[in-house]
Amino acid sequence: MRFAYETDRGPVTAVDGVDLTVREGEVVALVGHNGSGKTTLAKHFNGLHEADEGSVSYRGRPVPEYGMGEIGREVGYVFQNPDHQIFAETVWEEVAFGPKNFGLEGPELDRRVERALETVELDGLDDADPFAFSKGQRQRVALAGILATDPEVIVFDEPTTGLDATQQRQFMDLVAKLNREEGVTVVMVTHDMGTVARYAPRTVVMRDGAVVDDLPTRELFGDGAALAEYDLVPPHPAACANAVRGDEPTALTAEELATALGGTDALADAEPVGDTASATTEGEGR
Known about the structure:
single chain; alpha/beta; six-stranded mixed sheet; two-stranded antiparallel ribbon; transport; nucleotide-binding; AAA+_ATPase
C-alpha cells in the first residue's frame, strides 16, 4: 500500500509499497529513523489514515469498510503523548468515554472501567484528575481508556518516550502481560532498542516509507552488517547484563544476546544497570 501527505509543494510519499502481515497474538516492533514512515503506517491499522493505493485489512476485511467505532473497538491506538488522548476531568470519565460511545451503560460499563483500571494498577483513583498525574500515570490512563473497549489489537506510538527508567519498565511489563495473559496483539512504534530487545520477538525495519527488513529480533541484533546498514544500535552490553544472566525478560535467549553483543566475554565484567543505558535510533517518530 501507499500513502502520501498533501502539502503546499505537492504530495509527499510517507508509505511506499508496504506489504505486511501482523499475526494474531504477536508483539511486533516498527523501527527506523525519523521520517521513515513508522507512525504513518501504524495509523492505517485502525483507520486514522486511509491508503491512497492498495488496502489495509483486519481479519480479511478492508479497514475502511468498518465504521470508525467498529474498528476502534477492535484496534486501539495509544498516542505517543497521552495528553493528545486524555481530555476528561476525572479518571473514571476518561476511561468510560470509549465504551459509553459504543453503547455500554450501567453495571457493564462500571465493570469495564473497574477492570481496566485494575489492569493498569490505577484502581481506587476514579475521581482523580488525570492531568495531575505523572506522565507514566497518564500513559496508564490512556491505556485504560483503550482497554475498556476490549480491543483485540493495541498499537503503541513510542510507548516509552518521556518516561524514566522505572516507568518504562513498569509500562512495558504491563504491555507484555496483556499480550501474554489476554492474548492482545501488540504493535509498537519505537526508537528504543532496549525495549525492542526485551519485548518484541519480531522487528520490522522501515526506511523512506518502505519496509526494508522484517525478521526475528534475535536475527537483527545478531547481524552486524544489517545493523550498520539500517543505522541501528543494539543496547549497550551493560544494559543487557541482567538479561544475559537470566534475571530479566528479553526477546532474546542468553546465548543469542551474548552472540549479538560479541560473546560472553564482552559481558563478563559488566555491572547490571537496569534500563539506564538503553541505546536508541536517532530522532523522534513521525
